[in-house]
Each structure stands twice: as structure tokens, then as C-alpha cells.
Amino acid sequence: MSKSGCSMRTRCRYLLALILALLLIFVLFFKDPKPNNTLPVGLEVEDLALAAVAGRGFDGRRAVGAEIWNGQVRNSERENKGQELLETFQKPTADEVQQGGKSKVFEKNSQQYRDQVLCQPKVNITFLKVHKTGSSTLQNIFLRYGDKNNLNFAIPPVGHHLGYPQYFEKKHMIPVANGVYNIYCHHSRFSSQVLEVMPQNAVYVSILREPVVVFESAFTYFKMDGRAGMPGDPAAMSKFLQRPKYFYNKMRSKVHARNVMLYDFGFPEEDFDDESLINKAIKLIDKQFDLVVIAEYFDESLILLKELLCFPLEDIAFFKQNSRKEDSVHQLSDTVKNNVRKWNKGDVMLYDHFNRTLWDKIQAYGVDRMAAEVKELRELNNKLFEKCVATDTAAQGEGEFRIFQPPGVKINTFLLKDSAKEDPLCEQMVKPEIAYTQDLRRKQFPHFKAEHGRKKRLRQPMKKGFAKF
Fold first, then answer.
1. pLDDT at 392
2. Were both Cys, which of 97, 236, 258, 464 would link to 230 (CB 3.0–4.6 Å)?
3. CB 312: neighbour CB atoms within 10 A?
4. DSSP, residue by residue, 154-220
């Protein structure tokens, strides 16, 4: 072969290599990168757990779900404009500056801001329903509101759980035709996919309760004595708390057995003893959630909720749902209570933080103003109770709807007055979660049929007797 031919071939090879190199550079630097759900090499265990706190869930060391919470800003265009308007209203005049104080004009302008901008009832609401916190009572408010305004709910295809106790995924709900969900309020374990499902301007709400009360309720309601190998033992809770890790580790299902509330927020069980991570989780939760209701101050919390969502007072009226009869509640000694707090340290930290946060909000709202509005709410509740309810402690089978009652646990049941049985509001206020979910599923998806054919759960709840599940 001639020198010129060899030289030509060499040049072609160099040219081809150059083209391939340029093509590779283009792919690496100019093409949109595909999302990478795998965790980076060298990720610390702390970061891994924090990712779970952020609601991702895990399959081995692979993170499932999108980025969440960090750097997330969810203000709508209206809220942004509203802030600008508020700043304009709050700017004092020269006379006000000279007088050295806020004037009646300022107060009037602030109310004008609320009326014109903020006081538009919110329709996009995300409610994390935390177990054994009184969450069914709060959920009923959202169910009624969405029902009245024909809003789209995130509804499970069967039953009333959105995949719980798994991390929530989109597959756990029935898809809506327009792809827009307004209200998310059924039992779930919080995950990043909640943020993907709900609109960016959704208001995030949850509820907490004193951790000793939560643990006692969960231990009793979910029959933890049997799961711990002590079925029917009246001292099972005390024995469990003397050696909690021993009994916890032998349980096949550990759900509800420790840090019930923190678990529902998506925190991983394997990090329940890591207080540093729990503190970081609390900060993330505080950043994402607009209001965390405290069950012990439920009425005050509802006034703050009314202000946040711009609801009329009538929309936050309530009857207490799913409460146990007094003889089903265990009275605990101080020793047992202290052991509960030690075992559920994560829930204690979570509750203490948001209890303080609630009282900061109450102070900012105005203590006297709060007291006046709480009085008004209680008067409305009493008026509705007198109108609607014959008794709220009826025996199972006597009420308007069947209430799920675990063996050995008695749940109070509402019985409507005869004059109230055709009143839609009275019926909705006493309707339990399972029956209400069935009704909403039929209303929102009239042609939907569950794949696995659990037809009994989709039947119309019966009045004056048992609902068929």
C-alpha cells in the first residue's frame, strides 16, 4: 500500500475519533439529564434516613419518589400578589409616622387586604390523617366541604386507606379524568408523591395528640397485646413497656407499636432512636405543613384553620367522631406514662414542637379574639347537636351507620333525632369515614368497579341499622 493511501486512512480514523468525541461531549453536556432516583455514591446514612423523612420510601438503597420539602415554595400567584398588596396597605402615611403608631386606617386596610385577597376559600387541601389523634373528626370537616362543593378527592379504589401502611404512591388512588385533585384526606403514610399529586398551592394540614394518649389508644384499638404474644392479658401494656424492644422485635407487624405519629409522617422506623434525625425531620415537617392541629386544643386549632382556609364558621362545625366509650379507655399509672414517653420519644419531640408552634399562632391571632371565636364555635356546635342528635353514645346497631369496632373495644355511635333524619347536614356530620368514602366514590366515579371485586365495600350504607361493608 502506498504512503499516501496509508496517510489518508490514518486521517480518516482521526476524523472519525474526533466526531465520536464531539458527539459524546454533546450527549453529556447538552442533552437534558434523565432523573436519577439512585442515591449518590458515598451518601451518608444520615442523608439516607433524611431522604426517608422527606417521604421517599425505600427499596433497598434506591430512593423512590421525587425531591421533597427542601427549597419547596408553594405560594400561588394570588398569595404572592396578596403579599405585595399587604405591604402596600401596611405602609404608614406621613401623619401616621408623625403620630408614632398604627391608626384605624391601618386596621381597616388590613381587613380590606383579608377581604379582597386572602378571604377566598381554599379548595386545594392536603390533610395527613394521623392515627389515633382525633383525625376522623377533622377529616369529616374536609369530607363535607369537598362534598358540598363537588371537589375531586384522592380516593382509594377499595376501602378507606391510600396504601397504608406503605408509603403513598399514585397507584393507591383512582385517577380522575382531568388529573386535578382538590382534597387529600384519607389514611396514608406521607411521601413525596403526595406533593406530585396535589396542586402546588395546596394548603397542608395535619393533627397531633398527646403521645401517651395516642399510644394507649393504638395499643388497645389495634390489639397490640395479641401481636406481642400476650392476648387478653390486662397487664399487657405495662409488661410491653418494661421490655419494649424485646416485644417490638418479635412482632411480625410493628405498625402502630412505636411513634405512631412520626411513622405516619414518613419517618423510617429504623431511625426512631436517632434524635438528631428526628429534629431534622421536625424542621422539614414544619416547613411543609401550614398548620398542625393539636387535639387537646381542637377548638382553638379550628379557628386557626378557619382563618387559614377562609372558611365560614358553619364549615368547621363538628361532632366528635370515632370516640371510645369510657370503659374502653385504660387508666395508666405515672410509671406506665413515663415508660410510654421514653419508648415514644420521637412522638414526644414532634408533639412538643407543634404544641409550642400552635400557641405561638394563638398569641399572634390574639388571645381575646381567639376566646370569643371559640365561644361562638361551641355555641354553634351545641345548637347543631340539639337539632340533630338524640344521643352520641348509642350501642352498636342503634345508630344511623355501622361503626367499625375491634373486639373488646366499644366505639360511641350517633343516633339522629327523627326530625333530623332527612336533614343532609345532620346526616353528613354523623356519617363515619368508611360510609362517607363509599358515598363519595360512587358520586365521583359512578362507573368505577374495583379490580378485585370486593363488592361488599362498595354497597350503599344502610340507614337505621347496619351498613354493609
1. 80
2. 236
3. 9
4. ---SSTTBSSTTSBP-GGGSPPPTT----EE-SB-B--HHHHHHS-TT-EEEEEE--HHHHHHHHHH
Quick one: CA dihedral 238, 243, 249, 255, positive or negative?
positive
Question: What are the beta bridge partners of residue 291?
Answer: 205
Residues 62 and 287 sit within 8 Å (Cβ to Cβ): no
d(CA 411, CA 314): 26
More confident residue, 432 or 206: 206
Residue 4: band (very low, low, confident or very high) from pLDDT cuts 50, 70, 90: low
Classify residue 403 by its DSSP letter: -
> Of 146, 130, 133, 96, which Cα lies nearest the Cα of 216?
133
Q: How far is residue 365's CA from residue 303's CA, in Å, rounded to a whole number?
A: 10
Residue with cell 379557628: 303
Segment 353-377 shows an average pLDDT of: 97
Q: What is the pLDDT of residue 412?
A: 67
CATH architecture of 121-458: 3-Layer(aba) Sandwich (3.40)
Q: What cell numbers appear for 102 in the block?
A: 398604627
| pTM of the predicted model over 0.90 | no
Torsion-angle region of 60 (φ positive above 0: left; ψ -120 to 50: alpha; else: beta): left
Q: Which residues contact 214 (CB under 8 A, 6 or more apart)?
A: 131, 132, 133, 260, 261, 344, 347
119-162: pLDDT as tens digits: 789 999 999 999 999 999 999 999 999 999 999 999 999 999 99
List the one residue out of 431, 439, 375 whose CA is nearest residue 139: 431
C-alpha cell at 17: 475519533
pLDDT number for residue 6: 53
Q: Taking a C-beta distance cutoff of 8 angstroms, is the pair 95, 106 a contact? A: no
Name, in order, each residue with C-beta under 8 angstroms of 419's C-beta and a sequence gap of 6 or more. none
State mean pLDDT over 226-249.
95
Report long-range pairs for 247-251 (Cβ below 8 Å, ≥24 apart).
Answer: 251/227
- Interacting residues of 457 by C-beta distance below 8 A, sequence separation 6+: 158, 159, 438, 450, 469
> What is the structure's pLDDT at 382?
96
Query: Do 155 and 458 meet the contact criterion of CB atoms below 8 Å apart?
Result: no
Compute the mean pLDDT over every residue in the chain, rounded to the nearest whole number: 78
